[in-house]
Specification:
12 helices; Rossmann fold; about 15% strand; 2 domains; alpha/beta; 9 strands; single chain
Length: about 300
């Protein structure tokens, strides 16, 4: 049975420890020698495609990219038929999909003989969360993820799939997380990646960005208007007007606060140019660690250094 990287929640502490470790380990350029990895993208992404392709190639493998137009999940072909086809040619398939249930259906169709990597779904973004943890640990603890314990992280804005996986990853390491969002855009209980089931004592919800960032070591934000929600742009700009990460908001946090954003950024909406481009910003290290995250995930799938 192949290993599956679908959510942070499903992984054991041991699994996560190995992924974080292998993410920063010396490269083994023969780990995927001669092996292909299928990349299936229903949704576009610069960082996800670049980091996935780079990681596979640096480990000695090659990637084959399939766009939504080529495959047409459940329009041109069923999820099950796609899974069974890819299974004949690839041991690993990394997907960026609209509907999280695709992963369940693919696993059933292939009896878990093909490893799946969740590059994003409508409710989770675990590869981004691994990169975020690596970025925070690098800055505050020299790369030791255990050093994340006790840090105060404030997420400001729309509580999305990114937020859910981020919260689960940070809470499991003992960080204190506050999510600031208008009530209609706040985290809810349940689902495939449920931060309320991890350590609710370290998770707080707020409808005030200014309250949430007080004393924060990290401020994290993401786009107010995610892919597919463009028709809501005008309303969301009104609803999130007091949730912009700007100099005034940053000034309420710890003097040494750092800024994270998973990108792409809508400059002037959720974050200002001055903050995004400031010395406090770690967004480019986040982008760099998307590659690190994939190296760790692929190493774990191949059982590299597993003990």
């Amino acid at each position: 049975m192949s290993r599956q990287f679908i959510t942070i929640e499903e992984l054991s502490k041991k699994d996560l420890r190995v992924i974080y470790r292998d993410a920063l380990a010396p490269l083994n350029d023969e780990l995927l020698k001669g092996q292909g990895v299928a990349l299936v993208f229903e949704r576009p992404s610069l960082r996800t495609r670049a980091s996935s392709s780079a990681a596979v190639q640096e480990l000695g493998g090659y990637v084959t990219f399939f766009s939504d137009e080529e495959i047409g999940i459940d329009s041109r072909e069923s999820v099950e038929d796609i899974a069974k086809t890819l299974e004949q040619m690839f041991a690993i398939c990394a997907l960026r999909v609209r509907n999280h249930d695709v992963f369940r259906r693919m696993r059933l169709a292939t009896n878990d003989t093909m490893s799946l990597i969740n590059l994003l779904s409508d409710v989770t973004h675990p590869t981004q969360a691994i990169a975020d943890v690596l970025t925070i640990a690098e800055h505050f603890a020299g790369g030791d993820v255990e050093g994340v314990k006790g840090l105060k992280v404030a997420y400001v804005g729309d509580a999305t799939n990114v937020t859910r996986s981020l919260c689960v990853a940070l809470l499991r390491l003992g960080a204190r997380v506050t999510v600031a969002a208008p009530d209609a855009y706040q985290l809810t209980r349940g689902g495939a990646e449920d931060p309320f089931g991890v350590d609710s004592g370290n998770l707080q919800l707020s409808d005030s960005a200014s309250d949430a960032v007080k004393g924060a070591d990290v401020i994290y934000t993401d786009a107010w208007v995610s892919m597919g929600l463009e028709a809501q742009t005008a309303q969301r700009r009104v609803d999130f007007a007091s949730f912009q990460v700007n100099d005034e908001l940053v000034g309420l946090a710890s003097p040494d606060v750092v800024i994270l954003h998973c990108l792409p950024a809508h400059r002037g909406d959720e974050i200002t140019d001055h903050v995004l481009d400031s010395e406090r910003s770690l967004v480019w290290r986040q982008a760099f660690h998307r590659r690190s995250a994939m190296l760790g995930i692929l190493g774990w799938i191949k059982e590299e250094h597993y003990d």
